[in-house]
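Q: Hi! Curious about what TIGR03085 family protein looks like structurally. Here's the sequence.
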Amino acid sequence: MTASYARAERAALCDLFDQVGPDAPTLCAGWTTFDLAAHLVLRETRFDALPGVGLKLLSGYTAKVQRSLKAEHGYDGLVRMVRSGPAGVYRVVPGLDEAVNALEYFVHHEDVRRAQPDWEPRELSPGLEKVIWSRLRSLSRLMLRKAPVGVALHRIGGGGHAVALGGARNAARVEVTGRAGELLMFCFGRQDHARVDLAGEERAAKALMGARLGV
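A: Let's find out. The predicted structure is below.
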C-alpha cells in the first residue's frame, strides 16, 4: 500500500495540537494554534471563504468565517475535524489529498513545531524527502517568483538541484543548500526558521532572506 504522507502529517499535527493547546504560537504571523486549526477546517469545508486566503480584497470575509468556526466548534472540536479528514473534495477525488495536502500539512506541522522553544529538525524518511524534493522542483518557480535575486536550490542527501530565477534577468544569484524539508520551509516564506546555508553576495542574500516567498 502506498504511504500517505498527507495523512501522516495530518495525524502528527493533530497530536501536537493536543499537546500544546489552543494558545500556542505558530510561524503563521499573528496566528495561534487555535487560528491554524480553524484555517485548516476552513480550507477543506468552506470553499466560499477560500479565495480570501490569497486575495486581500476578500480576506475580510475569510477572517469572519474563520472566527465563526472557532466560536461554533471550539479548539477541541476543530482539532477533531482536522484529524478526521480529509474532508470535502479532498475526500472524494482520488489522489487529491496526497497531491495537495502532503506539503500543506508538512509545512503547518513545522509551523507549530518551530514556533516552540528548543525545536530541532526532524529526521524525515527517505520517501518523504523524495516527495518533498519532487514537488519543490515543480513549484520552485512559483514559490520564488517574488525573489529579488536569482536562486539555486541544492538538496543535501539526494543530489541534484533546481534553479528558479526571480527578480531581474541579470540579478545576482544566491545558492541555497539544505535538506529537502528545510528548502521547502525556506521557499514557503519561513526563511528565518529553515536550517539552510546561503552562498552569494551578502546584499543579495540579505534581500532574499527578507523577501515574501511562497504560494
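A: A fun detail: Residues 126-209 form a domain with the Nonspecific Lipid-transfer Protein; Chain A fold (CATH 3.30.1050).
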